[in-house]
TrEMBL record:
Taxonomic source organism: Candidatus Dojkabacteria bacterium
Name this polypeptide is given: Prenyltransferase
Transmembrane segments: 20-39, 45-65, 77-98
Organism ancestry: Bacteria, Candidatus Dojkabacteria
UniProt entry keywords in alphabetical sequence: Membrane, Transmembrane, Transmembrane helix
Superkingdom in the source lineage: Bacteria
Amino acid sequence: LTEKRNSNIRYVLKYYPVRFLRSWVILTSVFSIIFMFLYTLAQGLIYIPQSIIFALAIIRFLYLLETTKKGESTEILYDKIILLLLVIFSIYSFYIIYF
């Protein structure tokens, strides 16, 4: 019984922060894409390639969310790399917009 409880706790600690991060990253990146499109319209369509790349990254990320199996460590690693890239991109786009 205690072993099962420990494994449950381990599971929660392992996957719940990742889920929270995923939802947070998706939200921030969607908002930053919207801001970027508005900004490109205002700025004379300079950053359109960057926002297209950004949208493609999000589509790929959502596709990964659908197809990830819990056993595949390479998928989870790839997931974390995409998370990191999305965070960097969203911070960068917010930086471009507000400064």
